[in-house]
Amino acid sequence: MQRTFSTVLFLILLSSALHAEIWLPKIFTSHMVLQRDQPLTIWGKAGNNEPIKVSINGQQVSASSNSNGDWKIILKPMRWGGPYDLTITSSDDKKVLQNILIGDVWICSGQSNMEMPVSGWSKVNNAEQEIAAANYPKIRLFTVEKATSFVPQKDVAGGQWLECSSANIPSFSAVAYFFGRKINQDTKIPVGLISTNWGGTNIQAWTSWPAISAFEGYSHLDPVKMKQTFAEQDERRKAYNLALETDPGSKEAWYKNDQTEGWNTIQMPSTWEASEIGNTDGIIWFRKSFELDAVPSDQNILLHLGAIDDADSTYINGILVGSDNIWNKNRVYPISASVLKQGKNTITIKMIDGAAQGGMLGKPEDLFISMGNEKIPVSGAWYYKPSVISKQYNLIETGPNAFPSQLFNAMISPVTDLKIKGAIWYQGEANVNEAVRYQQLFPAMIADWRKAWGYNFPFIWVQLANYLERKKNPQPVPGPS
User: Fold this and answer.
1) DSSP states of 148-189 as a string?
2) Three-state secondary structure readout of 26-60
3) What's the number of domains the chain is made of?
4) DSSP-assigned letter for residue 3
5) What are residue 284's DSSP bridge partners?
6) Which of 68, 95, 224, 366 lies 20 to 30 A from 165 at CA?
7) Residue 476 confidence (pLDDT) above 70
8) In a domain, 314, yes or no
9) pLDDT, tens digit (0-9, with 9 covering 90-100), for 349-371
10) Are 197 and 60 found together in one domain?
């Protein structure tokens, strides 16, 4: 009995000690930038009703946490400068954040154009030289870890402040970096860049639920019920993922024959969503035959399929001639004459779509076989057969675009107590099919963010240029969908 009592007492004391530690949101780390010329809010958690003291640059402000351990302290505005130490002290703990600068903090948000890093899959000119020269100790970088949530969160999922250097800049947003570098070079004022973005996301995901639910088509939705629906998807998604790994089409070698019994016809090129296939993801096999009077002797034979979204494995007469998993990339595969035969030849494509639209994205004239000066068109009627598709598992999209506000809740709301200079925005492609509605959604999101921060900060955006095929004459703007 005595041992049990001692164990319980120890656990209580341990729990009390742990609760007395100072907790800070992830946005507060060494090397951060705090906004100049603004009252500054510092917040976190500690023990219940705990005295808290915050000091920086000669200022010292005290307060107490509430009965839940939450505390918030407001510092007087400071002019730009640094570096300083930011010290937070309670009766049992002390946190010291070092190398803090006072300057201008910018939120850098949007989809892939803002997410595009300085190196890697980006198309930054002279990337190697830019990286080598990217040593700006007065520019600080914070990348918010991707996350979704149905309710506003108190903290981001992850991230830390880093000095801008050749080591830290390659994976950071290129647009944000060049924007911040220009400001720093022109003003000499420290710049903090918070990169919070997600490729392929729509504007609804970045707008709070109170703001977006005011629009037609959203007011009847219930975030609580949708969260439960998403949770119920787990088991079905596990079964779906297992089926993808054991694709029946590959297992049964559909690429080795040219039979079409049980296959449906479709006009290609086409996205799945624009055809009878509809809005689904997964694996679908496609088949098209063509005739040759004789096997060509010319070895410069190429199969052109246009752009495919997302991945493909392409066979001719049962032989793999090419594969790729880069979405929206033109497929041009060389064909050995030994693969071909006189008479009937068959192209079979295993096509995989992971999310959003899938299929062939080119024009009919993009699909052909070239043999010297001769072209054999392969657009038009194809056969197709689903192998594993999300429709079969009653799956719904559970990504950031599946329900509004998920990115605002997880990647914007947690930092709205942090004072900022302004925001830069690069998004719109994901809403291109509802351009008229975007005219209302975009101003509403800007107003929503300003309301969340509590003041009208500058909001700068990039207007999309030449996103789709250029038209000689004005065209109707797509309406809401």
Assistant:
1) --SS--SS-S----EEE-TTTSTTSBHHHHHHHHHHHHHH--
2) CCCCCCCEEECCCCEEEEEECCCCCEEEEEECCEE
3) 2
4) H
5) 351, 386
6) 95
7) no
8) yes
9) 999 998 778 999 999 999 999 99
10) yes
